[in-house]
């Protein structure tokens, strides 16, 4: 009788262990469902959610670092046609995006509209010197005027340059180059980012994700339009994805992330590179592919971004994007810093450039469950163009069209320790706790089941032996 009771107890224990293990397995989809529901609820852009609080104002400090290309041989270039030699000078760092989104309006169609105010505050402690540092750089007014006028007006432009004592290169402060100065030739303010502190980007209209979390943050329209009007092409004029500050939750690393950048007047995609631990949080690193700035020869989809066959060597030049159509007539070329992924001829025409992917590529670190971008570095180089002219004195020695680097910028941010701790407490710890409970239940249940089953077999074996005796 005792033996029978022992066997029954072991069978019951094995059944109990199996039930516990099964419960741990059942908790996997149940736990995932709980996590998914919580994330989806907090990822919606509406007052009271985590997404809304992070969306209204950037929690982490956002900085723009500038490196200006200082021209080392300006006289030799103008008088003898020497190849330009440049040396980057920087960083000069400014805090940006410190102002929250403005004019926020939640619309009945489950979208929200807003403007992004501009603003820049100089950070001396994060810079190599004061804003008053001098640099020798390409003359923005001369290069801009050269790009805008046809050869018939070169003689007039040459006269204007002589009267104002303007040359191909000029000596200016960093502050003047970035934010503007009164140009003697054009009699107006000229700069790379004039009036930045008094401008806004937008309005944007994005989906809140209330009805479909897969649409959260995606741009519905920009400046009232669902497509761009710069490129005269259906593909190139598309506005895809978000503004890159966040993406829909539950990111699939096998698929690219799409985002629109008004700085470059186009949408681009980023692909998964690797995963790593950022302050105790697993993130996915996404970066731009070399094909983003490839020539139409290598990437036919970029054909519609080629605007001027003359300066792009019949659309065979890789690495630069002509933004004239979206810069109010200013001829600006955008590239990655030091012409990363650009044609070798760009670096042969201007010496002193050394592209390094680690320092010059654009990337985003995205937390896969929420889709929040926790760290990013948007790196862009601003270039202008000049070329030969029979009637402009300072260009008579120039042999070919040159796309000349002026400055490259790194806009960057990373979540601070306080935000990281809060993120881990609210999300990561909950996920880890559920996973731990699942593993413990499955492990303990399997152990009880195995132990009871083995013990049952041993008891039964001994009982059979006793009977045979």
List keywords for this structure.
about 475 residues; 4-stranded antiparallel β-sheet; 2 domains; alpha+beta; 9 helices
Estimated helix fraction: 25-40%
Radius of gyration, rounded?
31 Å
Could you describe the largest sheet, including whether it forms a barrel? 11 strands, antiparallel
Number of separate helices? 9
Compute the number of structural domains: 2
Strand content: 25-35%
Structural class, by secondary structure, is alpha+beta
Tally of DSSP β-strands: 19
Indicate the overall shape: elongated
Instruction: Give the helices and strands as they follow along the chain.
Output: HHEHEEEEEHHEHEEEEEEEEEHHEEEH
Instruction: Detail the poorly predicted runs.
Output: 17-21, 23-28
Provide the fold topology.
Blueprint: H1 2-43, H2 50-56, E1 62-71, H3 74-80, E2 86-96, E3 102-106, E4 111-117, E5 120-122, E6 134-138, H4 140-148, H5 154-164, E7 169-173, H6 174-179, E8 181-183, E9 188-190, E10 200-207, E11 219-222, E12 257-261, E13 266-278, E14 281-288, E15 320-322, E16 333-335, H7 344-349, H8 357-360, E17 363-366, E18 373-386, E19 402-414, H9 417-468
Antiparallel strand pairs: 1-2, 1-19, 2-5, 3-4, 4-10, 6-7, 8-9, 10-11, 12-13, 13-14, 14-17, 15-16, 16-18, 17-18, 18-19
């Amino acid at each position: 009788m005792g033996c029978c009771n022992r066997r029954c107890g072991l069978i019951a224990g094995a059944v109990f262990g199996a039930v516990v293990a099964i419960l741990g397995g059942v908790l996997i989809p149940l736990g995932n469902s709980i996590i998914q529901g919580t994330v989806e609820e907090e990822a919606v852009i509406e007052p009271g959610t985590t997404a809304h609080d992070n969306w209204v104002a950037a929690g982490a400090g956002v900085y723009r670092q500038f490196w200006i290309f200082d021209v080392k041989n300006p006289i030799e270039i103008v008088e003898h046609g020497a190849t330009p030699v440049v040396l980057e000078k920087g960083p000069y760092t400014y805090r940006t995006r410190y102002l929250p989104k403005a004019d926020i309006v939640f619309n009945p169609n489950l979208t929200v509209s807003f403007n992004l105010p501009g603003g820049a505050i100089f950070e001396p402690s994060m810079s190599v010197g004061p804003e008053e540092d001098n640099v020798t750089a390409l003359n923005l007014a001369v290069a801009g005027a050269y790009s805008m006028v046809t050869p018939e007006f070169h003689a007039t432009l040459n006269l204007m340059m002589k009267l104002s004592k303007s040359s191909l290169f000029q000596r200016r402060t960093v502050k003047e180059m970035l934010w503007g100065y009164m140009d003697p030739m054009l009699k107006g303010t000229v700069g790379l980012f004039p009036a930045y502190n008094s401008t806004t980007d937008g309005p944007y209209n994005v989906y809140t994700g209330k009805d479909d979390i897969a649409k959260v943050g995606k741009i519905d329209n920009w400046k009232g339009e669902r497509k761009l009007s710069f490129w005269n092409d259906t593909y190139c004029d598309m506005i895809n994805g978000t503004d890159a500050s966040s993406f829909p939750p539950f990111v699939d690393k096998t698929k690219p992330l799409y985002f629109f950048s008004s700085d470059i007047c186009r949408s681009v995609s980023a692909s998964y590179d690797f995963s790593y631990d950022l302050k105790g949080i697993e993130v996915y690193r996404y970066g731009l592919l070399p094909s983003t700035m490839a020539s139409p020869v290598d990437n036919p989809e970029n054909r519609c971004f080629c605007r001027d066959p003359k300066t792009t060597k019949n659309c065979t030049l890789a690495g630069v994007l002509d933004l004239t159509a979206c810069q109010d007539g200013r001829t600006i070329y955008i590239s990655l810093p030091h012409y990363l992924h650009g044609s070798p001829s760009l670096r042969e025409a201007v010496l002193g450039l050394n592209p390094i992917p680690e320092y010059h590529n654009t990337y985003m670190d995205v937390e896969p469950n929420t889709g929040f971008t926790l760290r990013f570095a948007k790196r862009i180089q601003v270039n202008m163009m000049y070329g030969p002219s029979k009637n402009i004195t300072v260009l008579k020695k120039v042999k070919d069209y040159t796309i000349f680097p002026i400055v490259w910028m790194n806009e960057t941010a990373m979540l601070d320790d306080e935000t990281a701790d809060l993120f881990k407490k609210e999300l990561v710890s909950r996920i880890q706790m559920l996973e731990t409970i699942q593993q413990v239940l499955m492990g303990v249940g399997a152990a009880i089941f195995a132990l009871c089953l083995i013990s049952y077999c041993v008891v039964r074996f001994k009982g059979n032996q006793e009977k045979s005796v």
